[in-house]
What we know:
binds adenosine-5'-diphosphate; five-stranded mixed β-sheet; binds magnesium ion; Beta-Lactamase
Amino acid sequence: MTARIFLKVIAVIVCLAGVALVAADLLASGVAERFLVAHLTSSLQDKGRVLIRSQASGTLDQARIRILAEATEARLTVVAADGRVLADSEAAPASMENHLNRPEFQDALQGKVGSVTRSSRTIGIDFLYVAVPMEPGPNPRYALRLAMPLKAVNEDIRAIRARILQSVALAFLPAVLIAGIIARSMAGRLSSVIAYAGELANGNFQARLPSSTKGELGLLSQKLNETGAKLERTVQQLQTEHAELDRLERVRRDFVINVSHELRTPLASIQGYAETLIDGALHDEKNNLRFLNIIRHNAERLTGLTADLLTLSRLELRTKEFRFAAFRTGELLGGVIDTIQPIAARKNISIEQEDGPADSEVFCDSEAFYQVVSNLLDNAVKYTPQNGTITTGFHHIARPDGSAWIEFYVRDTGMGIPVDDQSRLFERFYRVDKARSRELGGTGLGLSIVKHLVRAHGGDVRVESEIGAGATFFFTLPVDDSGIPEHVAASAAIA
Ligand SMILES: Nc1ncnc2c1ncn2[C@@H]1O[C@H](COP(=O)(O)OP(=O)(O)O)[C@@H](O)[C@H]1O
Ligand SMILES: [Mg+2]
């Protein structure tokens, strides 16, 4: 590639040099010819004048003119006013035609100096003819013509041309050399740009051109580098988006699998026991009530599961409508505890409420608050053995941005949660012990619902736990409407 560009540039330069040589030659040879002919013309004219002055016109006969021609190294011809040739140094006058119509004689016979170059009719080579009047005044009776072949002039011109061509060629040599060096470096740079464009075309967007070069090629490199960087960014962005789409698709698929699985177990149980009853167990008085209870229990599970799924999908699709208002914090919390107390009492678990700041107010949706706290209390009761204790309470905290929040806590004396599971606890269907959760009537959706409800208030949830040492769940809610996220507040009723 480099070689091709280099050769092209060199070829162009050589052509240019050739054109320049031809132009110089034409110009120089034209000038030299004009100069040499003019010089020869004036020298012949001078010789003619000297000859005429030294001779009486009548004495220029054939013999004399031959001698003079030898001395002047020119052919001499004398012509009368009527064009007749009176004497000639090289031919017999009688054999020569009338010369009246020769332009040089026409000038000379009018008293001027006539000069002309033309090919001789007798010999066929180029001659310079200069004719001078042999008498003063406008109407001389005789004119003398001096003729000289232009051979010498032409040889001089050839020598001058050769010299000029030599010097022009010499002058061009360094120019071609320098141009060659420049062409080589340009071709090198150009081919690296071309190679880089090829890299881009092949999808290698990390490559970059060295940006040290200046001029148009430097600008082109810079633009290509910018294009490469832009493409690299776009590809990265697309890859990230693609990965995120992949992740979402996996989440969706897992969710569908989980839901079907969760539905299948109670449905299969209902179907099985219903068939058993139909097949005759209906009349088995020992078992029929037990089977019906199992059916009812599974139906309840299905109801709970579908209710949880509905709540979750409303929260995720942001179609759940909230009714926010300010409540006395201690009273709101106490109300929920009261409803769970009977369930806890069955396991002889006590739920205690620690005193929070008096006159504290929380800004929330009371139904959502009920769902959050009852879910946490329900878990605490489920995962705490008999005779345990659950402690609840709240305190005011300030976020780094200065806003005021209330942090609630639900602490139990139960089995605790392994650290590895803590970060995933709030995911849909995530359970530390699936079988145990199911046995206890759990769906694995409770904490996910808690997280979404709290987030809709602008708050957050977290857990602190050690295995065997119980677990404490924390969540925050705002003290006034300034904490509610805009997208929630937009569609909510605020009292
Ligand atoms: N207080 C707790 N103590 C120990 N483990 C808990 C507690 N609360 C929740 N978990 C664990 O978190 C899981 C998810 O809880 P949750 O979403 O409420 O589902 P579910 O209660 O239906 O199993 C539970 O299955 C359990 O493993
Ligand atoms: Mg639960």
